[in-house]
Design brief:
The chain contains nine helices and no strands. It is mostly helical. α1 crosses α6, α6 runs antiparallel to α7 and α7 runs parallel beside α9. It starts with a helix and ends with a helix.
């Protein structure tokens, strides 16, 4: 397990040395949400009704913006090829990189969401459900995003292509997560949405590293 922990630590150290790759998506997340009260309406009743959708769309786009850094740097300096031909498990190496991506992107989004929920006039119960959906679903965003990132790793200026590949796969997560928060505002049962988000996480965890490994090998050939 030492090599996989080292891979995780290495990615975290690289991100600390190059903070713009982490800060830029988070700035986009905060600024885009902060602009909605100016663009739509400052009334609390209006904002609270659409707050879940706003925060979740901004979260998805922020994760999408950060996916280019998942494999791109290692591809350019040859590390990715060394991983592919090494005797270590490539899916587990990729999983280590996905975990580092979630730590750098998903966790800050989860921690910032209560403040942004207050700005959009969400009540405390809805903010708790929002954080819970983000905790369940942001790992899925990183896992599913790794598949798209591995497919376009060798293509320059591939941001638009990555969006076309990944956004359709993100739509079920968006629907279930935003629906859970919206129903919690009215005191309705949200067990179904939470179970579905948990199921997506389990399926993504079991399949995404292996699919990404196959895609990387194809891209490196």
């Amino acid at each position: 397990m030492n090599i996989y922990i080292q891979t995780l630590r290495r990615d975290l150290r690289i991100a600390i040395r190059n903070p713009s790759s982490v800060i830029n998506p988070l700035l986009f997340f905060v600024i885009s949400i902060s602009l909605f009260p100016l663009a739509i309406s400052p009334e609390s009743s209006t904002l609270s009704q659409i707050a879940a959708g706003i925060i979740w769309v901004a979260s998805m786009l922020s994760v999408l913006l950060s996916l280019n850094t998942l494999f791109h740097n290692d591809f350019e300096n040859g590390v990715l090829e060394q991983m592919a031909i090494s005797h270590y498990s490539l899916p587990l190496l990729i999983l280590s990189k996905i975990i580092s991506h979630w730590i750098l992107t998903g966790i800050p989004i989860i921690l910032l969401s209560p403040l942004l929920g207050v700005i959009l006039f969400l009540d405390s119960e809805s903010i708790f459900i929002l954080m819970l959906t983000l905790l369940l679903a942001t790992p899925s965003l990183s896992l599913i995003g790794s598949i798209g990132a591995s497919l376009i790793v060798g293509i320059k200026n591939s941001g638009m292509l990555l969006s076309l590949l990944i956004l359709p796969l993100y739509i079920p997560i968006l629907i279930f997560a935003a629906s859970a928060v919206s129903q919690a505002q009215f005191g309705l049962n949200i067990d179904l949405q939470m179970y579905l988000l948990a199921a997506i996480l389990v399926i993504s965890l079991m399949t995404a590293p292996y699919v990404s490994a196959i895609s990387l090998k194809i891209s490196l050939e």
